[in-house]
Amino acid sequence: MYFVDVILPVPLEGLFTYGLPDEWAERVTMGVRVMVPLGKSKHYIAMAVRVHQTEPDVAWKSIEQVLDDMPVLREEQMRLWQWISDYYMSPIGDVFKAAMPSGMKTEEGYRPRTETCLDLGVKWRSEQSLHVALDMMHRADKQRKVFETFLTMTGWDSLDGNVPQGKIEELSRDELMNATHCTAAVLRSLIDKGFLTTYEREVGRLNHGGEPDYTKIQPLSKAQQDAYNDILMGFMKKNVVLLHGVTSSGKTELYIHLIKRAIDRHEQVLYLMPEIALTIQMQQRLQRVFGNRLGIYHSKYSDAERVEIWKKQLSEVPYDVILGARSAVFLPFQRLGLVIIDEEHEISFKQQDPAPRYHARSAAIMLAAMYGANTLLGTATPSAESYHNVLTGKYALATLTTRYKDIALPEIRIVDTKDLQRRKMMHGAFSPQLIAAMHAALDNEEQIILFQNRRGFAPMVECKQCGWVPRCHYCDVSLTFHKNTSLLTCHYCGSSFRMPEKCPCCESKELKSRGFGTEKVEDQILEMFPEARVARMDLDTTRTRSAYERIIGDFSAGRTNILIGTQMVTKGLDFDRVSVVGILNADSMLNYPDFRAYEHAFTMMSQVSGRAGRKGKQGLVLLQTKNKDLPMVRQVVNNDFQAFFHDLEAERRNFRYPPFTHLIYIYMRHKDNRLLDSAAMEMGARLRQWFSSRVLGPDKPAVSKVKTMNIRKIMLKLELGIDLALVRKYLRQAQQQMMQNKQYSSLQIYFDVDPL
Question: How many whole angstroms separate alpha carbon 592 and alpha carbon 742?
Fold first, then answer.
């Protein structure tokens, strides 16, 4: 008797063993999907891991169906799943759920797209019978015209006797209707009378980018060529190279040359980007060169499209290059040779919720190692961890210190909003200097980017009389006012509430908005610049793939003058005519209760500054802040990453934070606050038995309630070199001991390894 160990797409630890009937024993191998029962009535599509003959000690059931003739998961992918599950302390079932498209995990599953095609009725497939058919239509001119066009387009008009003289071409219903401009009724009549028959033809959902055109690859400048050579030299010494290049230095052109080199070596390339918005712009650039050798994979694609890309990657003609967001790391590759992680510093590469809470940068580096491939990390503002790995010799380094065509870095001017507000010279979110610069840019038909890292109209509403602030019923946060919907919205659970007409505490009608988000900025811009064409790019305006494409396409083509956005506009977008960038409120990034706040602020301000003056002339950046004397602000102005990292490194070393320690957060959730406090104290005590002073907490996080669930957090600070496998063992043991206590049966405990 054979048995098979499988992974179920549920948040449960470990593998599950099922009986494997003899007739299926040869079909089931690692990576084949099977249908299995679970419990009394549930059925799941599971992933086979191992076939063996060891009968389990507990009662078992047999699989019900084998779904694949060939594996849909490669060995390297399975190893990556297991590494993510182990390192990030997440059930492997959660990794399965995150990794594969839904259409490959559900019983209804993926359905191929089909289109209706037309064929000639069997009784009319001779020269003589066709003459009869046309005679029968002598009073139906529209039907005869459509029928004759069908015969010409398919080649059925070439019959000699009953043998076609050429190839019979397939013709879709839509193609014939487009060619003849006929109505559906006319075509239906021909089908009902049997002159034409229909059948369904499977068609792919994937875009076809045409043939590759390598003549469009631009030659490298001397600085780029030097960096290119340094990268190749780096790959000879280390598996990972960090490319530190200033904004607009031409890193993308370097990537294109490296991709071409990999293709020439018959290798595949994975190109990861942090944001879908970037993927869209990069897709256009790469498609011009690599054509149909390029595949795109991210969450804004439909599930069916993702299934088709997955299957194509398993086929005999996979894409040579995959461009995608973090989920693309899970795709199957047959001969992966190069991984490019652009904007490697971006926190968007870290999955937050739901589990697994993996970092795509780390996962991609591991994937590359499993294939024996190289990894290139590209950025203008390296993460602290990556730069530390360079300094300690773990990664090699290549640099690009000049902009492409020697265009000057933007001039960054500090605007002291504290002084301007004292003198009552601020116009809402705008300083006089920024307004003047915007007028000048618009007069010169140039473009403007405004960065405000808060969406909505106002981050907070407050009663002027008693200070009451509307808060979410389900989360421990104040509500954000969205003017376009006239609703108060929670940005944690998504709940919306009507804006009250008066304060529920004192019944005052003086409810005032505090602060400003991108929606309010847009309102003020439209008032000050009524002739300007304005677009807003934040989570509220980019919920679909087409929305991303439209906003970026319009700005690239000059159809909009001013782009207002959250951190989405700080990424590596490339626009030719941007001359002014306004950072409206730098302090909202600096005054955040997190040890990474300054690192994230430096990164975002440096990156958004780099959008200015990218082609033709030096750009201008106006950085509005109340803390003009902060060293970090000066370092942004001077584009001095080395000084910033020196200060950051000293601070992190003194307070024992990454990259000088490993961090693991242990989160606990429960609806009952008292029970949660008791559980958190008990969990902390258990952990101190093993980790002593390395345990900090428990305490309440900044947001201590989300979706009715109260939250407590314990921080584990671990010195470098500690046995992480043993650490994970103890953490799992503590979790199991807690869950065995009946009073904690509904307690949720989960881990965030290397949190951001």
Answer: 38
Q: Does pLDDT of 205 surpass 60?
A: no
Could you tell me which of 600, 227, 226, 243 has the C-alpha nearest to residue 395? 243
Tally of CB atoms within 10 A around 279: 24
Q: Can you give the pLDDT at residue 576?
A: 80
User: How far apart (Å, rounded) are the C-alpha atoms in residues 132 and 134?
Assistant: 5
**Which residues contact residue 142 at a Cβ distance below 8 angstroms, ignoring those fewer than 6 apart?**
182, 186
Q: Which parts of 526-577 are beta strand (E)? A: 534-537, 562-565
- CB atoms < 10 A from the CB of 372, how many? 9
Q: Which residues lie below 8 Å from residue 174, measured CB to CB, with a gap of 6+?
A: 115, 116
- The continuous run of DSSP H or E covering 736 comes out as helix 724-739
Q: What's the burial of 507, exposed, middle or buried (CB within 10 Å: 0-12/13-18/19+)?
A: exposed
Structure tokens that stand for 184 in this block:
């559906």
DSSP E strands, 515-639: 534-537, 562-565, 578-583, 620-625
Rounded distance between C-alpha atoms, residue 150 and residue 162, angstroms:
17
pTM of the predicted model, to two decimals?
A: 0.84
pLDDT in tens, 438-482: 999 999 999 999 999 888 888 889 998 899 999 999 999 999 998
What pLDDT sits at residue 618? 84
Range ranked top by mean pLDDT from 108-117, 154-163, 361-370 = 361-370
- How far apart are alpha carbons 346 and 275 in whole angstroms? 9
Return d(Cα 622, Cα 361) in angstroms, integer: 32
Amino acid at 325: A
Residue type, 37: P
Report the C-alpha gap between 639 and 609 in whole angstroms: 10
- Give the distance, in angstroms, between the CA of residue 543 and the centroid of all CA atoms in the same chain: 12
User: d(Cα 434, Cα 436) in Å, to the nearest integer?
Assistant: 5
In angstroms, what is the C-alpha Rg of the chain? Answer: 30
In 347-495, beta strands by DSSP E:
374-379, 396-400, 411-416, 447-451, 460-463, 480-482, 487-489
Cα 345 to Cα 381: distance, rounded to the nearest angstrom = 7
Return d(Cα 515, Cα 509) in angstroms, integer: 19
Phi-psi label, residue 664: left if phi above 0, alpha if psi -120 to 50, beta otherwise: beta
Could you tell me how many residues make up the chain?
Answer: 756
Token readout for 305 is 């499209």
* Of 753, 447, 695, 396, residue with least CA distance to 582: 447
Residue 607 CA to chain centroid, in angstroms?
Answer: 18
pLDDT mean across residues, the chain: 91
